[in-house]
Amino acid sequence: MGDEAGLAVKTKIFISSVAQDDFTRLRQTVFHELRDLGHEPVMYEENLGPWPAHADPVKHCLRAVEASDVFVLFIKDRVGTYKPELQTTVTHLEFLQAFAKKKTILVFVDEAVTTAYFRSVRRRIIDFTEKSQSENGRPPRAGQMLEMLRSEDGLPGHVDPYVWLFVHDLVQRNIYCEPLNAGVGIDWRSYFSDLLRRGTPLLPVAEDLLQSQRLVELYNEYQELSSVLLKELDIRSIRRLDKFLAAFRRKLKGSVIYRRYGEYMEEPIGEILDCSAVTLYKRDGDRMRLEAKEGEAEGEAFYRLDDREAYVSSTYHNRGKERLWFFREDKGLFYCCILVRDYVLTLHFPSDGTWDTQKFVYYNDDINNGIMEKSSMNVELVKTILGGIAHE
Questions:
Q1: What are the angstrom distances between the C-alpha of 37 and each of 23, 34, 189?
Q2: What is each CA distance from 232 to 123, 134, 236, 251, in whole angstroms?
Q3: Longest Cα pair distance anywhere in the chain, in angstroms?
Q4: Which of 210, 224, 238, 316 is the most buried (most CB within 10 A)?
């Protein structure tokens, strides 16, 4: 009886996304599922118009957002036409309106986009922002950010550069992004039925979500501060590198690696065991010299810089990437190589025996995310210390 009474409360839900072919079926499905559940979805091509010829369509959309209770946003690789005079897109404006009016916001982002953002794009945006702040006394405008992102190598070419700015804004505002996985359908009826069954006036804000947002905010503050402090550190040496690496290694835990299908299911792929060894190499002329090792390390005393088969040398030359993963099937070992100025730090993780090279290549991103999400702050701390050692 309680649920039936709750469903009597109609929730007005604004569905926002760029009008790209990939989203046509998704938008239609969500619209009809919400309507069938007794709510009142609002969508551009269904019931938002028509409006008078003299009316500003952007203002019309923003008024519709303000009149709604819930704002649902879908992001893939496009976010609509960028308006230089506004320094934003209409889709982003709709989100900003929902945020300013304190609407309940549900965001779904293509999983490949969020993976690429956290792996490489976020750091570039932060660095560019800090550089502009330092040189010009103000953060860069969106147009300047877009120029920088268009010129960057290694970013997915099919993704509109403004997507990265949009996702960055969501992260900065602690907006949780649900993953959208290509080829993996979501039972929208079940999803929204559970989420909105009591109507938006009773929609709970879970305490654990609030706690997660606080932790994300704290981590972002820590990471941004450490990146500034790194430039100012002048550490002459580490007294006992072996003990330093040992303490670090003990904090590097393995994990079961999953392929995740949104929040509805996850498929175990295999397990990576706790870190078994750590090595630290430093450039010395035309070679990388072993500075220290700890645990079950079997690294050579040095590797030539022109030896591209050596993981350490290969990592040093890939200066556009701060972290690379390798796998030796014959040894059953994963190697995470981290570049810090003239140093390469290598973390050794044993496999559970179920991994081969093909599986490693296919699930490389899942491996990185599964291991580093547990150790990211410890890794950043060690990188900060190594990056602060004075160079003669």
A1: 21, 5, 8
A2: 19, 14, 13, 26
A3: 77
A4: 316
- Smallest CA-to-CA distance from 254 within 376, 118, 383, 375 is with 375
The reported pTM is 0.51
Q: Give the three-state DSSP class for 210.
A: helix
Sequence-distant (6+) residues with CB within 8 A of 141 are 87
Encode the chain (392 residues) as per-residue pLDDT tens digits.
344 444 445 788 999 887 666 677 888 888 888 888 888 899 877 777 666 667 788 888 888 999 998 999 999 888 888 888 888 888 999 999 998 888 989 899 988 898 889 888 998 999 998 898 888 878 888 899 999 999 988 888 888 999 999 999 998 888 888 888 755 567 777 777 666 554 444 344 444 444 555 555 666 666 667 666 666 767 677 888 989 999 999 999 998 888 764 433 356 889 999 999 999 999 999 999 999 999 988 888 999 999 988 999 999 998 777 789 999 999 999 999 999 989 999 999 999 999 998 889 888 888 888 888 778 878 888 888 888 776 54
Query: First and final CA of the chain: distance in angstroms?
Result: 76
Residue type, 343: Y
Strand 265-272 with 255-261, pairing: antiparallel
Question: Among 144, 145, 163, which residue's Cα sits nearest to residue 91?
Answer: 163
